[in-house]
Amino acid sequence: MTAAIGVVTFPGSLDDGDACRAAYLAGARVLRLWHADPDLHGVDAVILPGGFSYGDYLRCGAIARFAPVMESIIDAAKGGMPVLGICNGFQILCEAHLLPGALTRNSHLHFRNRDQVLRVESTGTAWTGGFSPGQEIVIPVKNGEGRYVADAATLDKLDAEGLVVARYVDGNPNGSQRSIAAIRNPDGNVVGIMPHPEHAVEALTGPSTDGLGFFSSVLRHLAAYERVTTP
Amino acid sequence: MARVVVDVMLKPEILDPQGQAVANALPRLGVAGVESVRIGKRIEIDFTGEADLDKAQEIADKLLANPVIEDFSIRIEESEA
Q: Signal peptide span per the entry (chain B) (predicted)?
């Protein structure tokens, strides 16, 4: 059966519609999940979309982390379910301690919105298996608080263990440490990315269709998983 | 009513561009001699009964501050009555 991808809508989510469309174009069944409903409705993977969940009051993602749906997602992620956090979703994954570090105010204080070159460095994740190591892709970046920070020990660990999924190339748009644009957990099922693959899935509206690779990768990952686990 | 005040500050090693922007504006006010400015948050928690420092500690640790990038301090504010 075609895998089902759930896209969460928090109050203040903006990119849930685009995330749904991207998953749909990749060939997934798409279910919309609601922040106040802890039921994941049997989805095989979850996307936390961009936006300003709960107004980003206090800190980006800090309040969303305690949404009823997040309790279920945190449990499912620890059990191996693929979870992709994009932009605000990345911030939520860090606040939920599913990924290390934090995302804070861009070093230059400006909101940055442009097409961005990334280098994909880790293809051993549920969401990037369809890329080749070192592949450069172009997807939009748009954030005001996208600067990835962590202590030196965490950054060294990310580098040493190959947990950096993508880095900014041709200019760091927000001052992220070590030009980090995306990271993963050691199991590779949880990925957080600051730029927006869901905005680069159709030639009409995006700078490329490079973003589609994230969504087709997870479907391939889930299909392989099903072959292994189905008796 | 009992008030507990929580101060949240970015850790010293975390860049504070907001504080830098303020510091950079000071010469335009004619203010000299300021080495740096850092910006944090002050949160006032009013309890219905006695001030509960343990509860305030939990609120600060779990929600108000992100220990990855921020430090916090807690104190009971004495009422002026």
A: none
Q: Which helix (H) or strand (E) holds A139?
A: strand A136-143
Catalytic residue flag (residue A221)? no
Residue A96 backbone dihedrals phi, psi, to 5 degrees: -85, 0
Tens digits of per-residue pLDDT, B44-60? 999 999 999 999 999 99
A63 close contact with B: CB closer than 8 A: yes
Is the distance from CB of A88 to CB of A94 less than 8 angstroms?
Answer: no
* Amino acid sitting at position B29: L
C-beta separation of A47 from A7 below 8 A: yes
Closest C-alpha to B22, from B31, B13, B14, B9: B31
- Note the pTM of the prediction, 2 decimals: 0.93
Instruction: Kindly determine whether residue B68 and residue A100, on different chains, have CB atoms separated by under 8 Å.
Output: yes
| Sheet of B70-77, strands arranged across | B40-47, B2-10, B70-77
A150 touches chain B (CB under 8 A): yes
CA angle A98, A99, A102 (to 5 degrees): 125
Q: Could you tell me which chain B residue has the CA closest to the CA of A151?
A: B68
Buried b (16+ CB within 10 A) or exposed e, A133-142: eebebbbbbb
Do A3 and A44 form a contact (C-beta atoms < 8 A)?
yes
A108 is catalytic: no
